[in-house]
Design brief:
Helix content: 25-40%
Shape: elongated
CATH superfamily of the largest domain: Gcn5-related N-acetyltransferase (GNAT)
Strand content: 25-35%
Number of strands: 16
Number of helices: 10
Largest sheet: 7 strands, mixed
Structural class: alpha+beta
CATH architecture of the largest domain: 3-Layer(aba) Sandwich
Radius of gyration: 22 Å
């Protein structure tokens, strides 16, 4: 089955609620009574969209899966605190189980959390939901707590044949003690360093990111007018692709930036099927020596892994020797068969190409 994971449209919210209810009814807690409060929560799709994001998996059969990603402190968030994001109500149509939809939905949700700059994704799932637990283990989530909770048991749900997590949750006391839902809490850290936050650029930062990028390139290179215009065109790149920034975790200072394509797209002619390319990696000269460029490059590799891609590629000019050393330390190798001569600002030079294989790239349908 081929499917695309994308944000749910408002006109699809009733179908998302119905899909979620149908999936959980087929799951390990489907035999338990469902309270009116629980049913209302499942169908409050617009509320979840306002609190973060509601994603759907769509195939030629229509909607076949969904998951919600919530910010801490919003009405349907239960576990997330601070700058964590919470995964809830992961559900797959029972007729579409076993095709990797749960993993694809969770991976796209994780990328969305990265875009927010979240420090981690948290969730919980019922102890009987072995399918969901296996999925989260494979995705790198760490068990936080196996303490028992009665009644409402949270809600990421999961994977094949429907959901889980306390996604059979109901008002305490409505089920016999033997049907109590115990759950497992999970956390997936998203930051490799406590001092840096990598996230998508915000609208009010566009001009500052453009100035930082130009400052970084002009500090080391003689920039032609054509390349200067490209460097400064951050707003257009953010609209068409993705512009990521690295900020100081203590005060929010912008330290560096890199541009990547959205899912299913490329940002340069270099990339081929199964590859992610990135452009315009820049670190403010005042922030050099802090590993910002390495962190942003590893972030691009992580995006490729989440998208199930096999390789990351990029172009670099021959004069950018500092960047070449960085790429070499990270494990990139030259890709000479894709190098060619270009002209810029009256100069002709060979545009170099580099690549790295993505470790543990998951099989994806998205």
């Amino acid at each position: 089955m081929s499917a695309v994971v994308r944000p749910a449209r408002p006109d699809e919210w009733p179908a998302v609620g119905a899909l979620t209810e149908r999936a959980f009814a087929a799951g390990p807690y489907g035999h338990l009574p469902v309270s009116a409060e629980r049913r209302a929560l499942v169908h409050a799709v617009g509320e979840r969209a306002a609190s973060g994001a509601v994603l759907v998996a769509e195939s030629d059969r229509g909607l076949v899966g969904t998951v919600s990603l919530l910010r801490a402190g919003t009405p349907q968030s239960r576990l997330a605190t601070g700058d964590e994001a919470e995964l809830r109500l992961l559900a797959v149509d029972p007729a579409a189980g076993g095709r990797g939809l749960g993993r694809a939905l969770a991976s796209v949700a994780q990328e969305a959390a990265l875009g927010w700059g979240a420090s981690a994704v948290v969730l919980d799932t019922g102890t009987r939901n072995r399918t969901a637990q296996s999925l989260y283990d494979r995705l790198g989530y760490r068990v936080l707590d196996r303490a028992s909770r009665t009644g409402e048991a949270g809600g990421a749900g999961g994977a094949r044949g429907g959901g889980g997590a306390g996604d059979a949750e109901r008002t305490p006391g409505t089920a016999p003690a033997g049907d109590r839902i115990d759950h497992v809490e999970y956390r997936l850290p998203l930051r490799e360093r406590d001092d840096l936050v990598v996230r998508l650029v915000r609208d009010h930062e566009i001009a500052a990111v453009a100035a930082l990028s130009l400052r970084a390139y002009e500090h080391d290179y003689d920039v032609s007018p054509t390349y200067r215009a490209s460097i400064l065109d951050v707003g257009e790149r953010a609209r068409e692709h993705q512009v990521w920034v690295a900020t100081d975790a203590s005060d929010g200072t912008l330290l560096g930036t890199v541009a990547t394509p959205g899912r299913g797209a490329t940002i340069s002619p270099l990339a081929r099927a199964g590859e992610l390319d990135f452009r315009l990696l820049a670190v403010d000269p005042a922030a050099r020596g802090r590993g910002v460029g390495a962190a942003l490059t590893r972030h691009a590799i992580e995006l490729a892994r989440l998208r199930g891609l096999e390789r990351v590629v990029m172009n670099s000019g021959p004069q950018m020797t500092g960047a070449h050393r960085l790429y070499g330390r990270l494990g990139f190798a030259r890709l000479p068969e894709r190098e060619h001569e270009i002209s810029d600002g009256g100069r002709t030079f060979r545009l170099l190409a580099f690549s790295i294989d993505v470790p543990d790239a998951p099989v994806t349908i998205a």
